[in-house]
User: Which sequence fits this backbone?
């Protein structure tokens, strides 16, 4: 099988090579008005996939395999397209482009895996070209993506931004794919991109393309909400050395004003006509945004009224350790301990370092269509990610290594992604376990009194004694004073050396019952292949391709269930084909594609896509489009293989072979329980979460009913029974409320998407791009919590015989004595979920040579909560967004400016960390730039959010303020 596949690839490669009889055409592309070279213009051959890019001097070399005459199309962002027919061998062509009014003529590849303009793309697509990247008003080009229509950027940290389109957004955006030079730069262990951590240096960005919505038919699993393509510059066509330096300040009320620095270098050299090399590196150092949200939340993560001074069981969003309360009412109510602020538990410094090396080889002389590329990318940094908790990623490392073969028809790419979590830790558990760790005061007390009490027991004991007036100087009944007395005795001072010592021990311990560190050294291996039959099949453009991927999960049992059996491996593969046909003098384009994907743990999945684009006029000034697309998202590696004790629950992945690998030993204290298990401990196996458990909702209803019934039985009207007797009778009377769980293993999510769109040039100065979509979802992945008694058979419970059946009595005893464990399991909801929306964008040249743009986005979900009351969709998207741009990159002798404004309305944020309202906001970014032609330099000063309207991207995330910067870029 492997030999046959290799033979097939070699035959394709040879057919591709021997079919080529090249003609060299050289030329340059200039601006018509001033003769200035146009960098990064694209020259494409009509009816072919051949594309070349102009270098820093506007030059290009095109090697043609077609017989003359041949039509080429020259395209540059901000300029009108130019068509030129080559009728004979020409040594030097000079093309002069007129300024255009739109970016819709830019050539893109991602929409159909073949070169086409944005204007004729059959689906929605957004693009940033070199000129837009250079002129972005944001502090980085990655931040500038937020100015694209329909795009949301959620900021977890100054160095960690999450991109999303069309709703259902979280910082851990597993429904959105990000490709850098064809490589998926998602973390193998986390399954989502860490912003631009291992992305591109801004000096090396050739283009950024973004496809909103489902794209699984061409790009496979997880291209569910959208996909982002970042492409770097070729060292063959864009040689030279460039450097940039950027510095400035970030400013917010809670963090103050802090300096930052950002520097980078790109060196590219065409060593020979057949070999070129490129190296890039960049470094950012800054102070992160501070997360200081002290609002109170309940046990379900909902924001409620109250503060530390008013609520005895207060649990602040960015306060950690106050989640822990006394397990039972000791006579003074349920009281939470005094936690630590996030700023006591992190170093606010954030940084990012990237380096990349690429070597390009053209093995055949006088043929630049065949190229072999080896590249390595390395990224490391310190940032904060917000998921189910807040995570401090410290010295986190990711690197990728790729070998790729490109030719006119064939693309073959293999790469590996390797990560190391470094010194990363869970901030919440750092607070909890630092608070609960034995300190000097606890040791001294136990030594003097001959006891072995925990710091929790001593803290709550002191609180109770102080509240009762048993501690001199503390007035009875004063809860604030009682808390102060307990804190003074048994809470480690966050400003002390002892705290630092305990804290450092906690964040280096991977056992979450005592520590906070997480270990992850996972890897991902991936191969892609694509072949275009352009010269072999005439009636249409036909492509075939496929991919294969393997995950190797390695957490030493701290995240995944990779304990006794070593690393976990998990495989996925897919194949696809696409047919594209043009008709009616190329005014009609029909595209159909289908892909089949198979993952190791799931049934195969077919993803078809159909699209049509039609221009009713011969000038092609108007194009209407319609598409039907499908997509799917495989459960992440954590959805399938996590096995994590979170203290209050066990989070367990739902791959069929995963639950049986999870084991944890629990203590059993009750005599009945010890008799049942034959000792003081019992082993819990993950399968019990599925096959020997009650639903969480039924246990909660049972508990409420038992409490009410017991209270009545203890009253004179109920017979005045003792509490133990009343509890036992109440449990038996309400046993019928308990329901056995029935949780299915997780399976892939699916989406069916319908889209209509229009692009048009109006009057030669205005361009309109609008679209509307409707998405229907199936099998949304959800987490369901079950409750497993540590002994007894749930399937054999007999509520009617609760007073006599031994098994039923054991189950009731387990629930009554807290001898059970909640288990959170990944599964799918059966609820109907849909979303719909629309986008409209208008671009124009006004006042002669000024660029103006405005776009509006509408997004809405359709979800009936009553179908699954415990499920949250996490739509997390504002219903309305408006974005405005205005500028001119050269309005007076090299002086330019840019303005971007964004408004969005309020919306509700749902997540496993905290739920809460996000306020409406208006943001304004500005930039002034000066192009110093004699020095090959560009100088910029600017600011992001210059109005100072501070906001949180989500409840509990850092408060984002303003960022002001100045930069200098020099091209040698």
Assistant:
């Amino acid at each position: 099988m492997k030999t046959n596949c290799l033979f097939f690839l070699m035959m394709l490669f040879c057919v591709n090579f021997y079919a080529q009889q090249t003609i060299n055409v050289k030329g340059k592309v200039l601006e018509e008005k001033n003769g200035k070279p146009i960098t990064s213009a694209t020259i494409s051959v009509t009816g072919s996939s051949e594309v070349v890019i102009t270098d820093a001097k506007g030059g290009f070399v095109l090697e043609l395999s077609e017989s003359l005459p041949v039509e080429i199309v020259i395209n540059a962002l901000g300029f009108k397209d130019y068509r030129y027919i080559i009728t004979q061998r020409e040594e030097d062509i000079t093309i002069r482009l007129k300024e255009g009014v739109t970016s819709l003529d830019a050539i893109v590849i991602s929409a159909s895996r073949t070169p086409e303009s944005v204007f004729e793309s059959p689906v929605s697509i957004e693009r940033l070209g070199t000129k837009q990247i250079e002129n972005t008003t944001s502090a980085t080009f990655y931040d500038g993506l937020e100015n694209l229509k329909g795009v949301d950027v959620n900021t977890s940290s100054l160095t960690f931004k999450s991109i999303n389109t069309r709703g259902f957004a979280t910082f851990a955006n597993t429904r959105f794919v990000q490709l850098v030079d064809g490589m998926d730069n998602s973390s193998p262990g986390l399954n989502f991109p860490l912003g631009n951590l291992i992305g591109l240096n801004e000096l090396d960005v050739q283009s950024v393309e973004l496809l909103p919505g489902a794209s699984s038919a061409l790009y496979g699993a997880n291209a569910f909400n959208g996909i982002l393509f970042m492409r770097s510059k070729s060292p063959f066509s864009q040689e030279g050395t460039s450097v940039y330096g950027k510095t400035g300040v970030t400013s917010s009320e809670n963090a103050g004003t802090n300096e930052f620095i950002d520097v980078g270098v790109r060196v590219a050299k065409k060593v020979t006509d057949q070999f070129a090399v490129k190296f890039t590196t960049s470094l950012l150092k800054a102070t992160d945004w501070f997360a200081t949200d002290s609002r109170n939340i309940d046990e379900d993560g909902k924001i409620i009224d109250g503060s530390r001074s008013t609520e005895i069981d207060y649990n602040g969003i960015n306060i950690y350790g106050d989640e822990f309360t006394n397990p039972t009412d000791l006579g003074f109510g349920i009281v939470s301990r005094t936690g630590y602020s996030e700023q006591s538990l992190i170093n606010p410094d954030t940084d990012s370092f990237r380096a990349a090396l690429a070597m390009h080889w053209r093995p055949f002389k006088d043929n630049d269509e065949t190229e072999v590329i080896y590249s390595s990318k390395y990224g490391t940094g310190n940032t904060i990610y917000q998921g189910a908790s807040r995570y401090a990623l410290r010295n986190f490392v990711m690197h990728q290594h790729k070998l790729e073969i490109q030719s006119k028809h064939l693309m073959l790419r293999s790469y590996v992604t390797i990560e190391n979590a470094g010194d990363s830790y869970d901030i919440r558990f750092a607070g909890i376990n630092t608070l609960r760790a034995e300190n000097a005061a606890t040791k001294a007390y136990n030594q003097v009194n001959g006891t072995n009490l925990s710091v929790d027991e001593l803290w709550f004991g002191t609180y109770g004694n102080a509240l009762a007036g048993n501690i001199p100087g503390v007035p009875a009944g004063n809860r604030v004073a009682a808390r102060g007395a307990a804190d003074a005795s048994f809470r480690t001072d966050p400003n002390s050396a002892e705290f630092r010592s305990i804290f450092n021990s906690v964040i280096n311990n991977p056992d979450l019952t005592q520590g906070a560190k997480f270990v992850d050294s996972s890897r991902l291996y991936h191969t892609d292949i694509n072949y275009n039959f352009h010269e072999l099949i005439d009636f249409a453009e036909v492509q075939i391709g496929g991919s294969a991927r393997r995950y190797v999960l390695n957490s030493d049992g701290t995240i995944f269930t990779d304990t006794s059996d070593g690393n976990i491996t998990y495989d996925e593969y897919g194949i696809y084909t696409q047919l594209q046909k043009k008709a009616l003098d190329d005014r009609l384009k029909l595209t159909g594609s289908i892909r089949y994907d198979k993952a190791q743990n799931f049934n195969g999945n077919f993803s078809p896509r159909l699209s049509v684009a039609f221009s009713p006029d011969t000038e092609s000034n108007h194009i209407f489009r319609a598409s039907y697309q499908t997509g799917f998202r495989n459960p992440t590696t954590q959805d399938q293989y996590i096995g994590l004790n979170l203290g209050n629950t066990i989070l367990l992945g739902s791959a069929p072979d995963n639950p049986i690998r999870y084991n944890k030993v629990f203590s059993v204290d009750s005599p009945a329980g010890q008799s049942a298990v034959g000792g003081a401990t019992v082993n819990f196996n993950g399968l019990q979460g599925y096959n020997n458990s009650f639903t969480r909702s039924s246990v909660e209803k049972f508990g409420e009913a038992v409490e009410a019934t017991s209270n009545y039985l203890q009253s004179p009207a109920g017979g005045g029974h003792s509490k133990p007797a009343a509890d036992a009778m109440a449990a038996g009377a309400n046993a019928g409320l308990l329901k056995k769980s029935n949780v299915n293993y997780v399976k892939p999510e699916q989406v069916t998407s319908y889209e209509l769109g229009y692009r048009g040039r109006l009057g030669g100065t205005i361009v309109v791009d609008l679209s509307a979509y409707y998405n229907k979802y199936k099998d949304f992945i959800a987490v369901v919590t079950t409750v497993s008694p540590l002994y007894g058979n749930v399937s054999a419970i007999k509520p009617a015989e609760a007073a006599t059946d031994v098994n039923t009595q054991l189950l009731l005893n387990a629930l009554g004595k807290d001898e059970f464990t909640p288990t959170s399991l990944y599964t799918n909801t059966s609820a109907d979920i849909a979303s719909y929306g629309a986008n409209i964008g208008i671009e124009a040249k006004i006042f002669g040579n000024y660029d103006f743009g405005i776009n509006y986005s509408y997004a809405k979900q359709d979800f009936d909560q009553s179908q699954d009351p415990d499920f949250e969709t996490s739509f997390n998207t504002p219903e309305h967004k408006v974005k405005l741009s205005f500028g001119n990159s050269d309005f007076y002798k090299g002086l330019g400016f840019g303005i971007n404004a964004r408004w969005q309305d309020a919306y509700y944020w749902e997540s496993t960390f905290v739920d809460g309202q996000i306020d409406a906001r208006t943001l304004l970014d500005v930039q002034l730039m000066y192009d110093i032609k004699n020095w090959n330099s560009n100088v910029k000063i600017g600011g992001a959010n210059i109005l100072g309207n501070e906001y949180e991207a989500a409840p509990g995330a850092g408060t984002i303020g303003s960022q002001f910067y100045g930069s200098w870029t020099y091209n040698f």
